[in-house]
Amino acid sequence: MNIHEYQGKALLSQYGVTVQRGILASTPDEAVQAANAMQEQTGTSWWVVKAQVHAGGRGKGGGIKLAKSMDQVRDLSQQILGMQLVTPQTGAAGKTVHSVLIAEDVYAPGPSPTQEFYLSVLLDRAKGGFVMVYSPEGGMDIEEVAEKHPEKIYREWIDPTIGFQAYQARRVALNLGLKGGQAFKQMVSFCQNLVKAFEGTEASLFEINPVLKTSDDRILAVDAKVNIDDNALMRIPAIAAMHDPREEDPTELKAASFNLNYVKLDGNVGCMVNGAGLAMATMDMIQLSGGSPANFLDVGGTASAERVAQAFNIILEDPNVQAILVNIFGGIVRCDRVANGIVEACRSLGDLRVPLIVRLQGTNAVEAKALLEASGLPIRAAVTLEDAASAVAAALA
Ligand code: GDP
Ligand code: MN
């Protein structure tokens, strides 16, 4: 589960990580109130208005603006609230901005120059541990740094059984170019607390870009991109409550309400499969036959008429779908039952609008094929995977 920047910063604060402070607002009036409160708390007289959407690159898309007066706070909030923010990570449609974070400006000039770092903690599944990935080149596109200057990306592996060691935090601060003094000390505790936050919230990612060294040598998280492991949410209700359904694909939400494991993709062949492994294999097969999968959909063990109809409805909500492939292996579930379910679902839906290829294999597969063919519906029944693949290719031709 992804959460917003303001929620990520609240979690960081709970673990003692120092953050750029801010207050959430969902109207220009609230934004002005928030700016006043920020001024009282921090003494700041400049503010940043930050669009809260689940996507990075907000700055590049015009979703982050500096305000130098209360009037500007109001005007910029007015502009950003309700806008359709397009960033390199949102796709062309963009995302609607429902709220903004009114944050203190932390880039004021002072005795020493400001510096932006990149710091993240994530799972390293291959090593069975955590890894801190960091770079002195923060603030910008980290993918670009990784490509052009791989030597500027550092890694510090963390063994979860012994935890993040103090010498490791010191090594990070040194590699970031900090040499003793307050900024060095603050960076060491910043890193230690960041790892605590990562572990304590059962996260799979904490990405802070930029981490800022202010001109008076304080270390602050200016941004927070956080992903929490979905499987842990039942243990951490306070974090589960941070879920914002407005940020999710509406079709995926609808599928979740039917208990269907659906992930939208951008291909043209809709697929309905039982079992995640078979679904992955089916998607590969679609690709090999010259199509490209429009979705991942695992209907699970029960393929009743109602469930099949729900699945078809979900698949057909995607206008890119030009054919549907059903690939069901009848182990516990009998293929003739599934075939009946498909026939009933097709009748209840009326015109399917796209060719339907159905491969049922396993218990009573022969009876199932006969049922589909006897239905009089325009269903192409296939038995082998090759047969199904060529039928998909023919439907797209
Ligand atoms: P992102 O674009 O979605 O990654 O959002 P960030 O929170 O990382 O902000 C983007 C950029 O806005 C940062 O890299 C900074 O350059 C700038 N920014 C953020 N906070 C401040 C601030 O307090 N003052 C100023 N002047 N710029 C800021
Ligand atoms: Mn950022």
Fold and architecture overview:
Helix content is 37%, strand content 24%. The protein has 397 residues and is α+β, with helices and mostly antiparallel strands. It has three domains: 158 residues, ATP-grasp fold, B domain (D-amino Acid Aminotransferase, Chain A, domain 1); 85 residues, 2-Layer Sandwich (Dna Ligase, domain 1), CATH 3.30.1490.20; 148 residues, Rossmann fold (3-Layer(aba) Sandwich), CATH 3.40.50. Strand 17, helix 12 and strand 18 form a beta-alpha-beta unit. Helix 10 crosses helix 11. It is elongated. The mean pLDDT is 94. The structure holds guanosine-5'-diphosphate and manganese (II) ion (MN). The site of guanosine-5'-diphosphate has 17 residues, from strand 2, strand 3 and strand 10.
Any descriptors?
single chain; alpha+beta; D-amino Acid Aminotransferase, Chain A, domain 1; Dna Ligase, domain 1; Rossmann fold; 3 domains; 13 helices; elongated; binds manganese (II) ion
